[in-house]
Amino acid sequence: MKVGKFIVLEGIDGSGKTNAIQFIKNLLEKQDIPKIITVREPGSTLLSEKIRKIIKYNFYEEKISTRTELLLMCAARVQVVENIIKPALKNGNWVLGDRHVLSTLAYQGGKNGKNQDLIKKIHKKIFKNFYPNLTIYLDVNPKLSMKRIINRKNKDRIEKKKKKFFLQTHENYLRETKNIKNIITINANFEINIVHKLIKEKLLFWVKKNNI
Question: How large is the average pLDDT for residues 85-109?
Fold first, then answer.
């Protein structure tokens, strides 16, 4: 039995990941991929979903430090990787992930990526050489992304952050995507149908190139 593939969607809030995940799942199903599982980080297991609520919750009484956020993210990731992703891949299934370590490098990476070396060391220690087979990065202008999420109801703690934070996160993404070998970058500033067309072209090329 062939080992499955792990594909991850990345991008700042408002980049269109949620719609892209479903589009890619439907696209891959048409390529006769036997079984495709979707996960999100943090989340997808009972414990990871509880951690997600802690991370996303709007704390007004106590400030959550970046490192606390980082360690919570890693704890949630261990659960989904060990309990869902690795077993699925071993059984020959494909996994589509909404965020993985690249999100941590971007969101918890800090100003000018000051925490990124620490994040990489933690990831290496815990996950060894476990990385996605392919990362699809939806690159959107932070100003546009903020316009897209401005009318969202019940914004979580991260969505409520100021423009400066999203500019910093976007910069961290751009810095780190240069270091990833298996990555597809999509201009996500266009309308959704154009973005999906770009994803389809590049993803099917990757599938063909890798004889899948």
Answer: 97
